[in-house]
Amino acid sequence: MLADDTGAVLGVTRSAGNRRWIWRDPRLAEADNRLALALAQQANIPELLARILSARGVSSHDASSFLNPRLRDAMPDPSCLQDMDRAAERLAQAVRNHEHIGLFGDYDVDGACGTALVCDTLRELGCTVSTHIPDRLTEGYGPNTIALEKLLSEGATLLVCIDCGTAAIDILNGLTDRADIIVLDHHKPDGAALPKGIVVNPNRLDCVSGLNNICATAVAFLTMVATIRLLRRTNWFDGGQAIPDLLQRLDLTALATICDVMPLTGLNRALVMQGLRVMSRGERLGLATLSSVAGVKEEASAMACGFALGPRINAGGRIAQADLGLKLLLSEDVVEARALAEQLDRVNRQRQTVESTILDSAMEQAQQQLDAGHAVIFLHGENWHPGVVGIVAGRLKERYNRPALVAALTDGVIKGSARSVPGLDLGTAIITARQDGLLLTGGGHAMAAGFSLAVDRAEEFHASLNAQLSTALSLPKQDALKLDGIMTLAGASIAVADQLARLEPFGPGNEEPVLAISNVRCVKSERIGKDGNTLRVILQGEDGGTRLRGLVFRAGDKPFATLLEERSMPLIHVAGTLRAETWQERKNLSFFISDAAPA
């Protein structure tokens, strides 16, 4: 089954989901892939794994470190980050003098995890620490004078901003005569100008660390490594003070890296692998309790973080009390942790309801904009909740394969969030629009950004985005489905699923392998779940004997679902991911269907 960049796999030029199926890499189609065969022999791994790794550019020399990454091998010298040594020195000084430190964190998962990591570590080192997570609706993104003044009034002599602060030049510069300021961030700055304090940000223009794709919690982790290293070098621990175990805090770094959608390669892969191992031990009470409340029964995984834990921690910052997630991550009381976890679970359900009230209207308006020839989707509504517009933007991006910006309109100001597709740098486009005077605020990174503007600049802003990101017009309505292999139903087994699981954790830069299973019939289908939006099917091979359970989530949004439910049970090809999941000490094989096409 050969395919080139313009061809199709299994003859699928357009599936029932209106997508082309292509190879993720042309080498996957080669029957005699010598590189893959050599990799299988030299790394002593199955040929299927070798083919996938080879297509992803992993050599025999790197295979072992990819499959079993060690943090000691991937860990950079924290001093490679611009101004890291200055930050470590000031934090070490605060530790030596038992200073009161004020932490200001963002209201998302990355902000909560980074703030928890720094708070936990500094408290163990003997500092008094106060924290503040801003309310999304009343305070907005980033440091604000009132909150920072409150931290100072509580006694803080050092302010640390986490996952924010790079763009807050005027606000932070107005306080430098009252306290020292450190910014631990990863968002792109608006040019070369930075606040007067110490800014550790791998995306600042003069930083040559090469760590552009780490999240703010990873920056915070490296900062704590540098601080403890400096304290050790100056013999501060000789007095009997315990040395904090930073490896035990990698659960926070893993959760933030996954939920901030960072590439799971290199350092990030090592941080997440180690962090998930820590998380699986269940030693952080808040996360263990939230996992229980969320119904997460398997070991910690990227999927559990991204789809169960992360949304619940985010929910507080979206539509409720912004610091609920941070309180849970820091909780050491069983009763408190349970109450917080249950509250976040309730808030997350409320968030889903609020989101659904906006989504249908947003989908309709988005289609109208695309029909009108816009390259970028830009929507706003008066009754739209600011806390869920980012999620809606993400859904629109997934549905239409276009950059999407969704915002709430309040008192003449449009304020919202943006999500982009791979290859289109939305953060730079937002910053450019801000520099051109179209925005009141704006910033972010390539795949996600935030913005605000006066309502009378909306058309001009949309035109600017269309011009800057005009190449989006050439994108298909749905991105091609990229396959990593083809198999028969008889070839789908728990052993194969276990082989594929060795490539975890999955995410950007290391996508979960997508397999096509050819020539099957859907002999049973039923809608399940509270809302009936999950489709469960039984796939049967041509031999009439081999069967496999298949699942389709959000089936109502999937055009190919009707093909699976056809009573005539036509011969079809299906594409998706093969997983072996453990339930009540028994392994079960499931195929999570991404698309289907007539055979």
TrEMBL record:
Keywords from the named record: Exonuclease, Hydrolase, Nuclease
Entry-linked Pfam families: DHH, DHHA1, RecJ_OB
One GO-annotated biological process of the protein: DNA repair
Source superkingdom: Bacteria
Alphabetical list of InterPro entries matching this protein: DDH_dom (IPR001667), DHH_sf (IPR038763), DHHA1_dom (IPR003156), RecJ (IPR004610), RecJ_OB (IPR041122), SSDNA_exonuclease_RecJ (IPR051673)
Domain DHHA1, residue spans: 377-470
Residue intervals of the RecJ OB domain: 484-595
Keyword Nuclease: yes
DDH domain residues: 101-224
GO molecular function: 5'-3' exonuclease activity; nucleic acid binding
NCBIfam families in UniProt: recJ
Family that this chain belongs to: Belongs to the RecJ family.
Protein name: Single-stranded-DNA-specific exonuclease RecJ
Organism: Gluconobacter kanchanaburiensis NBRC 103587
Organism lineage: Bacteria, Pseudomonadati, Pseudomonadota, Alphaproteobacteria, Acetobacterales
